[in-house]
């Protein structure tokens, strides 16, 4: 069995990972999730874990200059965390998340990492040092600036880790 981790540009790699998304999040599953109907940004980068050349785990990365408490702040976004059902509990999502955080840290410009998840998934992240963000988050949806509270925001310390206050993503969420 060969395992490879790649970090690739977001849009061109979409066809490679679409079958994995369709398997984990088919439309009928998404319809039941808190983020059904949310308009998401396209990722800048993707972490793809392949086992014997089959993409089995994925994490998306986003770079965004947001506004926190009226000042610009550089956010490293993380999303699209998913593992093929037959490859779970082998540490693949943990490895992919670590690779994503290393990438964001190595870029040096990102102040903190931010992800959004369903409330029942927060334990997965808080056991990996992510902390709940307690403030209000605003984002773009269908061209308007709206309060974004469909999911729980979680932050991870890079240079700093704000936990409260108004945070504007200045664009689509992820
Ligand atoms: C969540 C998910 C990405 C984990 O992938 P994975 O490759 O199995 O993750 P890892 O092997 O690195 O870690 C698995 C551990 O996380 C734990 N875990 C999984 N879901 C959890 C949850 N909802 N709450 C707390 N812990 C959770 C597992 O029990 C396991 O713990 P163990 O190693 O002590 O047995 C995978 O279950 C998945 O794709 N789920 C469906 C998509 C999804 O919900 N993605 C998250 C979106 S925010």
UniProtKB/TrEMBL annotation:
Pfam families: Acetyltransf_9. It comes from the Bacteria. InterPro entries: Acyl_CoA_acyltransferase, GNAT_dom. Residues 3-162 form the N-acetyltransferase domain. This is GNAT family N-acetyltransferase.
